[in-house]
Amino acid sequence: MKKVLIIHGPNLGLLGLREPDIYGNFSLDAINEKIKKLAKEKKVSVDFLQSNHEGEIVDAIGSSPKKYDAIVINPAAYTHTSVAIRDAVAAIDIPVVEVHLSNIYRREEFRHKSLVAAAMGQISGFGVNSYLLGLLAAIEIINK
Ligand code: DQA
Known about the structure:
The protein is an alpha/beta fold.
């Protein structure tokens, strides 16, 4: 069975409480449940990492090709700042799909730039569905 790592970046553990007008009312657990349900339907296995620490995310990306077939990542604020996460994504040879709950291009200007755009593609602005669409994109790529 193909394996996908889902990475949630900083402050996403606060979903549900955090700016619900922007990010919605779903908790991270609720989002993960939806991802698990889709993964089960599509017969892939998923693991989850939520981290507020850049180095931990870099380590997880770097070690993922040994364990996973693809990554779906919401780098959260690190999207806009982290050369280290960008370089980690560029360094590995498994597909990486970048997702965002909000449409980062309709928000403050500092969010318009993604350094993680080294990923294969990006899905932004569809709330929880960004993760589900991101997982479908990853599955499509690894099943080819
Ligand atoms: C986010 C968008 C980022 O700009 C922000 O820092 C986040 C969440 C999103 O999912 O919409 O923490 O990645």
